[in-house]
Amino acid sequence: MLTLLLIVVFFACFGFLFREGMWSNAVTLFNVVVAALLATSFFEWAARVLEKWGPSFTYHWDFLALWGLFALSMAILRGATDFISKVRVRFRKIADQIGSPLLAACVGWVMVCFTAMTLHTAPLARDFMGGSFQREERMFLGLAPDRRWLAFVQSLSRGTFSQAASPEDLQKEPDWQEDKTRTFDPRSEFMPKYATRRADLGSYVSKHGTTRIKTEESSE
């Protein structure tokens, strides 16, 4: 089921874009990569803010923050690139015929990687989709798109997408003291952390019959 879902994501992106032209698809690829990077880099912060507003949905906010930030970033980037690039760059016909589907496939692959990664944060069972989603396995025919995306974001967080570390971050991670920047998932604990989180959610649902956490406000 998981493989089928990711195949649908890939071919949906490819089908919508392969005739759009090389220039348009190059811009789309740039937008998708940057939007996905921004969403992955800042979703934890956004989820913490949302959790203060709605603590009973604590298991939902990470997933919703990821896709919400991605959609918002895509809308802003698309508007900006459409404003800056009002005229498409023309290429030779043969180059356009080859480059357009190639770049469409690249967009599809990035979306597969991002989608696979976001599923780890979904408010579902530890091994959902009939057991096809298992964080220990290399998903999608062994290509492991989720691992590749996490490694990509982690590498960029040490360079282009580096973020200033807060005092709280520096206390938790003494290694960040030297350059005062924080690394995304520094110990590569993203997948096991969210697997444990989904297992905890499964236990909670079995006991209470809901994914909403009971708080004083919700109980009232």
Brief write-up:
The protein is mainly alpha-helical and 220 residues long. 64% of the residues lie in helices and 2% in strands. The protein has one domain.
Alpha carbon gap, first and last residue: 40 Å
What share of residues is helical? 55-70%
The class by helix and strand makeup works out as: mainly alpha
Question: What portion of the residues fall into strands of 2 or more residues?
Answer: under 5%
Poorly predicted segments: none
Q: How many DSSP-defined strands?
A: 2
- Main sheet overview: 2 strands, antiparallel
Overall pLDDT confidence: 88
Q: How would you spell out the order of helices and strands?
A: HHHHHEHEHH
Q: Count up the domains.
A: 1
List keywords for this structure.
220 residues, mainly alpha, two-stranded antiparallel sheet, 8 helices, 2 strands
Structure description:
The chain is built from 8 helices and 2 strands, in the order αααααβαβαα. It has one domain. The chain has helices at residues 2-17, 22-53, 61-84, 93-119, 145-156, 167-172, 190-208, 216-219; strands at residues 163-164, 181-182. It starts with a helix and ends with a helix.
